[in-house]
């Protein structure tokens, strides 16, 4: 799903003598509050002089930072274990303390979790895949293969016993659940992966954080706190403007305004607090234990 139409000229020529910071951003609905100031007046023009935004999938954000093609990016937390030197900006996250609705494992009702032989996985987020591997270990099915597939539930289930769908495609799959049953008469079970993670660990499901590239030539070390403040302020303003966001995104996605409002205000948690940091420590420990990610010592924001 593409990003909302740009408000203002995000690629205007910078009036500053300093090069603009290249930002890898995500176009899913769940990032909308984080990006408020970058897309809306009165601050979008000022931020466009400092930041150059490009829109992509979460996994692509991580690749941009790893290659040095971006200076900042909203990356899946799994990237911290696979890209040495990434630095976390404090303050913001994409997380959920319970039900999230946009991270789904869908399986056929007659096939228990422990008996699933293959999973078609939307590879847009490596963190969701790593979380899922941890869950399958807990479910007694540690070696189930994950097959990369584009985010289309019908084709995914035609290729595998179960499917992992994330982001806007997952929200749409939930919305179409009744219609799909009428069309296929296939009885499916929809597992909310954030809720499953919370049941296993008692902690939030942390999907993504803002991170700085390890090889950026224009970012200071330590990071200038004004950079983190720009993103924190944008999030705060976004959460203060839920009504306009609901109106914008209800024109972009075939979802009701109430569904979008609940998602942005109740399902997603946007503050990188101590509970989320503890969830990340637990995630990296369990991911290393089950072989989903290499060993990584999580030290928090830098």
Give an overview of the whole structure.
The protein has 302 residues and is an alpha/beta fold. The chain has helices spanning 36-39, 44-48, 58-67, 79-82, 126-138, 153-159, 167-175, 177-184, 193-201, 225-239, 242-252, 257-267, 274-289; strands spanning 21-26, 51-56, 72-76, 87-96, 103-108, 119-122, 146-149, 162-166, 188-192, 205-212, 269-271. The protein has a 6-stranded mixed sheet with strand order 2-1-3-10-4-11. Helix 5 (126-138) crosses helix 9 (193-201) and helix 11 (242-252) crosses helix 12 (257-267). The chain starts with 20 loop residues before the first strand and ends in a 13-residue tail after the last helix. Mean pLDDT is 92; it is low at 1-16.
Outline of this structure?
By secondary structure, the chain is α/β, with parallel strands linked by helices. 40% of the residues lie in helices and 21% in strands.
Domain count: the total is 2
Tell me the name of the CATH class of the largest domain.
Alpha Beta
Spatial strand order of the main sheet? 2-1-3-10-4-11
Q: Let me know the CATH homologous superfamily of the largest domain.
A: Periplasmic binding protein-like II
**End-to-end span in angstroms?**
32 Å
Number of helices: 13
Q: Low-confidence stretches at least 5 residues in length (pLDDT < 50)?
A: 1-16
Strand content: 15-25%
Overall form: globular
The beta-strand count equals 11
